[in-house]
Amino acid sequence: MTDATIEPGLQTAIFGGGCFWCLEAVFREVEGVRSVVSGYCGGHVESPTYRQVCSGGTGHAEVVKIEFDPAEVDYRKLLDIFFLIHDPTTRDRQGNDVGPQYRSVIFAQDEDQLHAALAVIEELGEQRVFPKAIVTRVERAAPFWPAEDEHQSYYENNSDMPYCQYVVAPKVAKYRARYPVRWKR
Mean per-residue pLDDT for 77-82? Predict the structure, then answer.
């Protein structure tokens, strides 16, 4: 279940930056993004479950698979958003979410994405955008496994839950503040 057929002209990006609910909520709002699926990537177990991944023993990261139209939003802009909405300087953690499943990782789908991701990380480091070194891993494409249905559109379906209010909503607000004209209304 690595890559379903996508609409001609669309491209795929896969990012992991902590809990997939946060990333999914933001990327669903980006103009040019056609779909966002929460799931798992980078591990050694086929068809892992949320419980297995949360144990930290499968090697998977919680990720989002983004299908986007590069004529409307390019990969570089997606990378900029990715680095805006998570802390790429903490190894295997985002806030209170701790473990290798919450690592900061980019799964490059081709050589262009690989080089673009490495270039952005280098630029951010040179510009000292973050107070510490970026630890985001850039890896080649790996099998993607969609998360269970209850994890899809999680923020949209559970925005009143405390985790969504205190963790997800601030990331959505940060994105909207930085890109006030680039989100779907």
Answer: 96
